[in-house]
Amino acid sequence: MGEAKRRNRQGAQAVGELQQRIDSGEFGAAGVVSHWCVVLDRSPRGRSILLALRQGGRFPGLEPLFEAEPFRFWEASALFDFVVLCSGEGSADRRTQLAADEAKLLKTALPTALARAGSAQQRAGVVLALDEASEAKVQQALAESTFRSR
């Protein structure tokens, strides 16, 4: 019972932080979510944020990605450590990127998703739902960013 309460508390905290980021305009105009990218792994934090995203409805176009073949494959298989979901044009399959490891995440999956989700006027806001070590590496790559929007 204590573990479930802790996870619920973490999920509520993550939702609150996410709402603050939405209100500040990180994902489009203030209070509007239009350019987003979500990076998930299977860590407890990743699972907690995934649950919050499934319940939240804050990211338009996210729900179909949960039903897309790549996402369902990621959930059912241990072949890929990461999944990246993004806004933008294209089918749900094209807006879902899988990565077997951190190197592929940083070299291929994340840049592809950021290019699809962003625009010339607005870079996509990124939600990292990763373990601490992976999150630090992705944040560093984003800070040094060679990733560019369209």
What can you tell me about this protein's structure?
The protein is built from six helices and four strands. The chain has helices at 2-23, 44-56, 63-67, 69-76, 102-117, 132-143, and strands at residues 36-40, 82-86, 96-99, 125-129. It has one domain (2-143). The protein has a four-stranded mixed β-sheet with strand order 3-2-1-4, with helices on both faces. The mean pLDDT is 86. The longest helix has 22 residues, at 2-23. It is of the alpha+beta class and 150 residues long. Helix 1 crosses helix 2. It is globular and about 45 Å long.
Any chance you could write out the topology, listing elements then pairs?
Blueprint: H1 2-23, E1 36-40, H2 44-56, H3 63-67, H4 69-76, E2 82-86, E3 96-99, H5 102-117, E4 125-129, H6 132-143
Parallel strand pairs: 1-4
Antiparallel strand pairs: 1-2, 2-3
Helix pairs in contact: 1-2
Largest sheet composition: 4 strands, mixed
Radius of gyration: 14 Å
Estimate what percentage of residues fall within beta strands: 5-15%
Number of domains: 1
N- to C-terminal separation? Answer: 47 Å
SSE order, one letter for each helix or strand: HEHHHEEHEH
The average pLDDT value, as a whole number, equals: 86
Shape: globular
The structural class is alpha+beta
Strand order of the largest sheet: 3-2-1-4
Number of H/I helices: 6
Main features:
51% helix; 4 strands; 150 residues; 13% strand; alpha+beta
Short account of what is shown:
This protein is α+β, with helices and mostly antiparallel strands and 150 residues long. The protein has helices at 2-23, 44-56, 63-67, 69-76, 102-117, 132-143; strands spanning 36-40, 82-86, 96-99, 125-129.
